Amino acid sequence: MEGRGLLRIEPAEALGQVAGVGQLLTFSPPIILDQDARLQIRTIKVGMFSFRIYPPFRSGPANYLPVPEVKLTEVPWLLGFSVQVPHEIKLMRMAAVPQLGLNAEGMARVVMTLDTEWKDPPEQLPMDSLRIDVFPEDPSSLQVEEGWPQFGVETQTVVSLLMEWLRVYSKQWWIGRPAGAITGHGRNTFPIDANGLMLHEPAGGLEGLRVVEGDELVVDEELWKAAVDKLEQEMEPPLQEVLLLDARYHLTSGDIRRAIMDAATACEVARDQAFSRIGIRLSESDNDLLRHRRKDVRDRNRPSYQSDEPDHYASIDELWVARGKIAHGNAPRYRDKSAGAMRPIDDQKMGELRKSAEHLVRWLDKLQ
Questions:
Q1: What is the DSSP letter of 39?
Q2: Where are the alpha helices (DSSP H) in 154-255?
Q3: pTM of the prediction?
Q4: Sequence-separated (6 or more) residues with CB below 8 Å from residue 89
Q5: Residues 234-255: pLDDT tens digits?
Protein backbone atom coordinates (compact mmCIF):
# COMPACT_ATOMS: atom_id res chain seq x y z
CA MET A 1 0.00 0.00 0.00
CA GLU A 2 1.47 3.36 -1.03
CA GLY A 3 2.53 5.48 1.89
CA ARG A 4 2.22 2.67 4.42
CA GLY A 5 4.01 3.53 7.66
CA LEU A 6 4.33 7.25 6.79
CA LEU A 7 2.53 10.09 8.54
CA ARG A 8 1.74 13.01 6.26
CA ILE A 9 0.09 16.14 7.61
CA GLU A 10 -1.85 17.84 4.84
CA PRO A 11 -3.25 21.37 4.92
CA ALA A 12 -6.67 21.45 6.54
CA GLU A 13 -8.36 22.52 3.29
CA ALA A 14 -7.01 19.40 1.55
CA LEU A 15 -8.45 17.09 4.17
CA GLY A 16 -11.97 18.49 4.31
CA GLN A 17 -14.03 20.00 7.09
CA VAL A 18 -13.48 19.12 10.72
CA ALA A 19 -15.97 16.34 11.54
CA GLY A 20 -14.85 15.17 14.96
CA VAL A 21 -11.95 14.63 17.31
CA GLY A 22 -9.36 11.87 17.43
CA GLN A 23 -8.10 11.09 20.92
CA LEU A 24 -5.06 9.07 21.99
CA LEU A 25 -5.15 7.50 25.44
CA THR A 26 -2.65 5.53 27.48
CA PHE A 27 -3.23 3.33 30.49
CA SER A 28 -1.34 1.24 32.97
CA PRO A 29 -1.21 -1.61 33.80
CA PRO A 30 -1.60 -3.02 30.29
CA ILE A 31 -4.27 -5.10 28.60
CA ILE A 32 -2.87 -8.50 27.61
CA LEU A 33 -3.74 -9.36 24.00
CA ASP A 34 -3.32 -12.51 21.97
CA GLN A 35 -0.63 -11.50 19.46
CA ASP A 36 -2.38 -13.52 16.74
CA ALA A 37 -5.69 -11.74 17.32
CA ARG A 38 -6.99 -9.45 14.60
CA LEU A 39 -9.22 -7.08 16.49
CA GLN A 40 -11.62 -5.05 14.38
CA ILE A 41 -12.07 -1.29 14.36
CA ARG A 42 -15.60 -0.70 15.63
CA THR A 43 -17.89 2.30 15.22
CA ILE A 44 -20.72 2.53 17.73
CA LYS A 45 -23.26 5.14 18.76
CA VAL A 46 -23.54 6.15 22.39
CA GLY A 47 -25.97 8.96 23.15
CA MET A 48 -25.56 11.85 20.73
CA PHE A 49 -22.10 10.78 19.57
CA SER A 50 -20.49 8.11 17.43
CA PHE A 51 -17.25 6.55 18.63
CA ARG A 52 -14.79 4.84 16.32
CA ILE A 53 -12.75 2.56 18.56
CA TYR A 54 -9.43 1.17 17.36
CA PRO A 55 -7.76 -1.94 18.84
CA PRO A 56 -5.35 -1.33 21.76
CA PHE A 57 -1.72 -0.90 20.74
CA ARG A 58 1.72 -0.66 22.38
CA SER A 59 3.48 2.69 22.90
CA GLY A 60 5.92 2.09 25.75
CA PRO A 61 9.32 0.40 25.44
CA ALA A 62 9.60 -3.27 26.33
CA ASN A 63 10.99 -2.47 29.79
CA TYR A 64 8.50 0.31 30.52
CA LEU A 65 7.37 0.68 34.11
CA PRO A 66 4.62 3.10 35.17
CA VAL A 67 6.81 4.40 38.01
CA PRO A 68 9.68 6.91 38.26
CA GLU A 69 13.17 5.81 37.35
CA VAL A 70 15.41 5.74 40.41
CA LYS A 71 18.16 8.39 40.33
CA LEU A 72 21.24 6.85 41.89
CA THR A 73 22.70 10.29 42.55
CA GLU A 74 19.73 11.09 44.79
CA VAL A 75 19.88 7.94 46.95
CA PRO A 76 20.37 8.95 50.62
CA TRP A 77 23.36 7.76 52.70
CA LEU A 78 24.32 8.02 56.36
CA LEU A 79 25.49 11.43 57.55
CA GLY A 80 29.24 11.81 57.35
CA PHE A 81 29.64 9.67 54.23
CA SER A 82 30.31 11.30 50.91
CA VAL A 83 29.47 8.94 48.09
CA GLN A 84 30.50 9.59 44.53
CA VAL A 85 28.55 7.48 42.06
CA PRO A 86 30.62 6.61 38.96
CA HIS A 87 28.92 7.63 35.73
CA GLU A 88 29.31 4.12 34.33
CA ILE A 89 27.04 2.65 37.02
CA LYS A 90 23.52 2.45 35.67
CA LEU A 91 20.49 1.13 37.47
CA MET A 92 18.76 -1.74 35.75
CA ARG A 93 15.18 -1.10 34.75
CA MET A 94 13.45 -4.45 34.69
CA ALA A 95 9.85 -5.02 33.64
CA ALA A 96 7.80 -8.15 34.08
CA VAL A 97 5.05 -9.03 31.63
CA PRO A 98 2.53 -11.53 33.00
CA GLN A 99 1.64 -14.39 30.69
CA LEU A 100 -1.86 -15.66 31.28
CA GLY A 101 -2.50 -19.29 32.12
CA LEU A 102 -0.31 -21.61 34.19
CA ASN A 103 2.66 -23.69 33.08
CA ALA A 104 2.90 -27.51 33.24
CA GLU A 105 3.84 -27.30 36.95
CA GLY A 106 0.79 -25.17 37.73
CA MET A 107 2.87 -22.02 38.24
CA ALA A 108 2.21 -18.54 36.89
CA ARG A 109 4.35 -17.43 33.95
CA VAL A 110 6.19 -14.10 33.71
CA VAL A 111 8.43 -12.72 30.96
CA MET A 112 11.27 -10.50 32.26
CA THR A 113 12.92 -7.86 30.10
CA LEU A 114 15.69 -5.31 30.71
CA ASP A 115 15.81 -3.87 27.19
CA THR A 116 13.78 -1.16 25.52
CA GLU A 117 13.15 -3.44 22.52
CA TRP A 118 11.69 -6.94 22.50
CA LYS A 119 14.37 -9.49 21.62
CA ASP A 120 11.86 -12.30 21.79
CA PRO A 121 8.32 -10.85 21.96
CA PRO A 122 6.03 -12.67 24.39
CA GLU A 123 3.17 -14.68 22.93
CA GLN A 124 0.75 -12.45 24.81
CA LEU A 125 1.43 -8.79 24.18
CA PRO A 126 0.86 -6.04 26.79
CA MET A 127 -0.95 -3.11 25.18
CA ASP A 128 -0.94 0.30 26.81
CA SER A 129 -2.62 2.71 24.38
CA LEU A 130 -5.91 3.30 22.63
CA ARG A 131 -7.25 5.55 19.88
CA ILE A 132 -10.85 6.73 19.80
CA ASP A 133 -12.43 9.05 17.21
CA VAL A 134 -15.48 10.98 18.38
CA PHE A 135 -18.13 12.35 16.00
CA PRO A 136 -21.19 14.37 17.05
CA GLU A 137 -24.57 13.42 15.59
CA ASP A 138 -24.87 16.95 14.25
CA PRO A 139 -21.52 18.07 12.76
CA SER A 140 -22.75 21.67 12.77
CA SER A 141 -22.66 21.56 16.58
CA LEU A 142 -18.85 21.59 16.44
CA GLN A 143 -17.26 24.87 17.40
CA VAL A 144 -13.83 25.15 15.86
CA GLU A 145 -11.37 27.41 17.64
CA GLU A 146 -7.97 27.84 15.99
CA GLY A 147 -8.42 24.54 14.19
CA TRP A 148 -9.48 22.60 17.30
CA PRO A 149 -13.10 21.38 17.56
CA GLN A 150 -14.84 21.96 20.85
CA PHE A 151 -17.87 19.96 21.96
CA GLY A 152 -19.23 18.54 25.16
CA VAL A 153 -18.63 14.81 25.52
CA GLU A 154 -16.87 12.95 28.30
CA THR A 155 -14.80 10.37 26.45
CA GLN A 156 -13.34 9.14 29.73
CA THR A 157 -16.75 7.76 30.73
CA VAL A 158 -16.94 5.70 27.54
CA VAL A 159 -13.35 4.48 27.90
CA SER A 160 -13.86 3.52 31.55
CA LEU A 161 -16.93 1.46 30.68
CA LEU A 162 -15.06 -0.28 27.85
CA MET A 163 -12.15 -1.06 30.18
CA GLU A 164 -14.50 -2.45 32.83
CA TRP A 165 -16.12 -4.83 30.35
CA LEU A 166 -12.71 -5.96 29.09
CA ARG A 167 -11.72 -6.52 32.72
CA VAL A 168 -14.82 -8.57 33.57
CA TYR A 169 -14.72 -10.71 30.42
CA SER A 170 -10.98 -11.38 30.60
CA LYS A 171 -10.64 -11.49 34.42
CA GLN A 172 -7.52 -9.35 34.01
CA TRP A 173 -8.21 -7.84 37.42
CA TRP A 174 -5.57 -5.11 37.04
CA ILE A 175 -7.22 -3.36 34.06
CA GLY A 176 -8.19 0.18 34.94
CA ARG A 177 -6.67 -0.01 38.43
CA PRO A 178 -3.43 1.49 39.87
CA ALA A 179 -0.40 -0.45 38.66
CA GLY A 180 1.32 -1.08 42.00
CA ALA A 181 -0.66 -4.26 42.63
CA ILE A 182 0.93 -6.01 39.67
CA THR A 183 4.33 -4.28 39.42
CA GLY A 184 5.17 -4.32 43.12
CA HIS A 185 7.47 -1.63 44.53
CA GLY A 186 10.94 -3.20 44.52
CA ARG A 187 13.26 -1.93 41.76
CA ASN A 188 16.91 -2.56 42.64
CA THR A 189 19.03 -4.39 45.21
CA PHE A 190 22.72 -4.14 46.13
CA PRO A 191 25.03 -5.53 48.83
CA ILE A 192 26.11 -3.04 51.53
CA ASP A 193 28.56 -2.84 54.42
CA ALA A 194 27.65 -1.99 58.02
CA ASN A 195 27.46 1.72 57.11
CA GLY A 196 25.14 1.11 54.20
CA LEU A 197 27.78 1.77 51.56
CA MET A 198 27.29 0.02 48.23
CA LEU A 199 29.67 -2.89 47.67
CA HIS A 200 28.55 -3.83 44.19
CA GLU A 201 26.70 -2.37 41.26
CA PRO A 202 22.91 -2.61 41.83
CA ALA A 203 20.99 -5.41 40.20
CA GLY A 204 17.44 -5.25 38.95
CA GLY A 205 14.77 -6.39 41.34
CA LEU A 206 11.03 -6.98 41.33
CA GLU A 207 10.32 -7.49 45.00
CA GLY A 208 6.60 -7.39 45.57
CA LEU A 209 5.79 -8.47 42.00
CA ARG A 210 2.32 -9.96 41.84
CA VAL A 211 1.42 -12.60 39.30
CA VAL A 212 -1.74 -13.93 37.75
CA GLU A 213 -4.25 -16.33 39.27
CA GLY A 214 -4.30 -18.67 36.28
CA ASP A 215 -7.89 -18.21 35.07
CA GLU A 216 -7.40 -14.87 33.31
CA LEU A 217 -8.00 -14.76 29.55
CA VAL A 218 -6.21 -12.91 26.76
CA VAL A 219 -8.26 -10.40 24.84
CA ASP A 220 -9.04 -11.94 21.45
CA GLU A 221 -11.48 -11.11 18.65
CA GLU A 222 -14.48 -12.64 20.40
CA LEU A 223 -13.85 -10.98 23.74
CA TRP A 224 -13.12 -7.60 22.12
CA LYS A 225 -16.38 -7.75 20.15
CA ALA A 226 -18.38 -8.73 23.25
CA ALA A 227 -16.97 -5.83 25.29
CA VAL A 228 -17.64 -3.24 22.56
CA ASP A 229 -21.16 -4.63 22.06
CA LYS A 230 -21.91 -4.09 25.77
CA LEU A 231 -20.50 -0.56 25.51
CA GLU A 232 -22.78 0.16 22.57
CA GLN A 233 -25.74 -1.05 24.62
CA GLU A 234 -24.60 1.27 27.45
CA MET A 235 -24.79 -1.64 29.88
CA GLU A 236 -22.88 -1.74 33.16
CA PRO A 237 -21.03 -4.94 34.10
CA PRO A 238 -22.64 -7.07 36.83
CA LEU A 239 -21.68 -5.48 40.14
CA GLN A 240 -20.82 -8.80 41.79
CA GLU A 241 -18.28 -9.54 39.04
CA VAL A 242 -16.63 -6.14 39.44
CA LEU A 243 -16.47 -6.63 43.22
CA LEU A 244 -14.94 -10.09 42.92
CA LEU A 245 -12.19 -8.70 40.68
CA ASP A 246 -11.73 -5.80 43.09
CA ALA A 247 -11.24 -8.36 45.87
CA ARG A 248 -8.44 -9.93 43.81
CA TYR A 249 -6.91 -6.53 43.23
CA HIS A 250 -6.97 -5.54 46.90
CA LEU A 251 -5.60 -8.91 47.97
CA THR A 252 -2.62 -8.54 45.63
CA SER A 253 -2.21 -4.95 46.87
CA GLY A 254 -1.96 -6.23 50.44
CA ASP A 255 -5.22 -4.54 51.49
CA ILE A 256 -6.93 -7.43 53.29
CA ARG A 257 -9.64 -5.22 54.76
CA ARG A 258 -10.95 -4.01 51.41
CA ALA A 259 -10.57 -7.47 49.88
CA ILE A 260 -12.86 -8.86 52.58
CA MET A 261 -15.45 -6.14 52.18
CA ASP A 262 -15.56 -6.49 48.38
CA ALA A 263 -15.78 -10.29 48.49
CA ALA A 264 -18.55 -10.23 51.10
CA THR A 265 -20.48 -7.50 49.26
CA ALA A 266 -20.26 -9.50 46.01
CA CYS A 267 -21.94 -12.40 47.83
CA GLU A 268 -24.68 -10.10 49.15
CA VAL A 269 -25.37 -8.63 45.69
CA ALA A 270 -25.56 -12.10 44.13
CA ARG A 271 -27.79 -13.31 46.97
CA ASP A 272 -30.23 -10.42 46.57
CA GLN A 273 -30.46 -10.96 42.82
CA ALA A 274 -30.96 -14.72 43.21
CA PHE A 275 -33.62 -14.32 45.90
CA SER A 276 -35.45 -11.78 43.75
CA ARG A 277 -35.57 -14.33 40.91
CA ILE A 278 -36.99 -17.12 43.08
CA GLY A 279 -39.38 -14.96 45.09
CA ILE A 280 -37.69 -14.69 48.49
CA ARG A 281 -38.28 -11.30 50.09
CA LEU A 282 -35.68 -9.71 52.34
CA SER A 283 -36.54 -7.22 55.06
CA GLU A 284 -34.25 -4.34 56.03
CA SER A 285 -33.24 -6.28 59.14
CA ASP A 286 -32.10 -9.32 57.15
CA ASN A 287 -28.35 -8.94 57.50
CA ASP A 288 -27.25 -12.55 58.03
CA LEU A 289 -25.99 -13.81 54.69
CA LEU A 290 -25.68 -17.44 55.80
CA ARG A 291 -29.07 -17.73 57.48
CA HIS A 292 -30.68 -17.27 54.08
CA ARG A 293 -28.34 -19.64 52.37
CA ARG A 294 -29.27 -22.24 54.94
CA LYS A 295 -32.97 -21.83 55.68
CA ASP A 296 -34.93 -19.96 53.01
CA VAL A 297 -33.66 -21.96 50.06
CA ARG A 298 -34.08 -25.29 51.84
CA ASP A 299 -37.67 -24.39 52.78
CA ARG A 300 -38.48 -24.06 49.08
CA ASN A 301 -37.11 -27.51 48.22
CA ARG A 302 -34.18 -26.00 46.38
CA PRO A 303 -30.49 -26.91 46.66
CA SER A 304 -28.80 -26.16 49.97
CA TYR A 305 -25.37 -24.56 49.80
CA GLN A 306 -24.62 -25.80 53.30
CA SER A 307 -25.37 -29.41 52.30
CA ASP A 308 -23.94 -29.27 48.77
CA GLU A 309 -20.75 -27.34 49.53
CA PRO A 310 -19.90 -27.69 53.24
CA ASP A 311 -16.26 -26.59 52.86
CA HIS A 312 -17.09 -23.45 50.89
CA TYR A 313 -20.00 -22.81 53.26
CA ALA A 314 -17.58 -22.86 56.22
CA SER A 315 -15.31 -20.38 54.41
CA ILE A 316 -18.23 -18.05 53.73
CA ASP A 317 -19.07 -18.24 57.44
CA GLU A 318 -15.50 -17.12 58.20
CA LEU A 319 -15.74 -14.35 55.58
CA TRP A 320 -18.95 -13.06 57.12
CA VAL A 321 -17.45 -12.99 60.60
CA ALA A 322 -14.44 -11.06 59.26
CA ARG A 323 -16.73 -8.61 57.48
CA GLY A 324 -18.58 -8.00 60.74
CA LYS A 325 -15.32 -7.35 62.58
CA ILE A 326 -14.31 -4.74 60.01
CA ALA A 327 -17.75 -3.12 59.98
CA HIS A 328 -17.42 -2.53 63.73
CA GLY A 329 -13.96 -1.02 63.49
CA ASN A 330 -11.92 -4.10 64.38
CA ALA A 331 -9.05 -5.86 62.64
CA PRO A 332 -10.09 -8.59 60.16
CA ARG A 333 -10.19 -11.91 61.98
CA TYR A 334 -12.00 -15.21 61.52
CA ARG A 335 -13.22 -17.89 63.85
CA ASP A 336 -10.96 -20.97 63.70
CA LYS A 337 -13.43 -23.60 64.87
CA SER A 338 -10.79 -26.34 65.04
CA ALA A 339 -8.76 -24.32 67.55
CA GLY A 340 -11.68 -22.53 69.17
CA ALA A 341 -10.00 -19.15 68.72
CA MET A 342 -10.13 -15.99 66.61
CA ARG A 343 -7.21 -15.65 64.22
CA PRO A 344 -5.93 -12.85 61.96
CA ILE A 345 -6.44 -13.19 58.22
CA ASP A 346 -3.25 -13.39 56.15
CA ASP A 347 -2.81 -13.45 52.37
CA GLN A 348 -3.16 -17.22 52.15
CA LYS A 349 -6.35 -17.28 54.20
CA MET A 350 -7.79 -14.36 52.25
CA GLY A 351 -7.05 -16.25 49.03
CA GLU A 352 -9.17 -19.14 50.31
CA LEU A 353 -12.01 -16.83 51.36
CA ARG A 354 -11.96 -15.05 48.00
CA LYS A 355 -12.18 -18.31 46.07
CA SER A 356 -15.14 -19.43 48.20
CA ALA A 357 -16.84 -16.08 47.56
CA GLU A 358 -16.43 -16.61 43.81
CA HIS A 359 -17.80 -20.14 44.17
CA LEU A 360 -20.87 -18.91 46.08
CA VAL A 361 -21.57 -16.20 43.50
CA ARG A 362 -21.43 -18.76 40.68
CA TRP A 363 -23.76 -21.07 42.65
CA LEU A 364 -26.22 -18.24 43.29
CA ASP A 365 -26.15 -17.14 39.63
CA LYS A 366 -27.44 -20.61 38.65
CA LEU A 367 -30.19 -20.67 41.26
CA GLN A 368 -33.65 -20.76 39.70
A1: P
A2: 155-170, 180-183, 221-232, 239-253
A3: 0.82
A4: 72, 201, 202
A5: 999 999 999 999 999 999 888 9
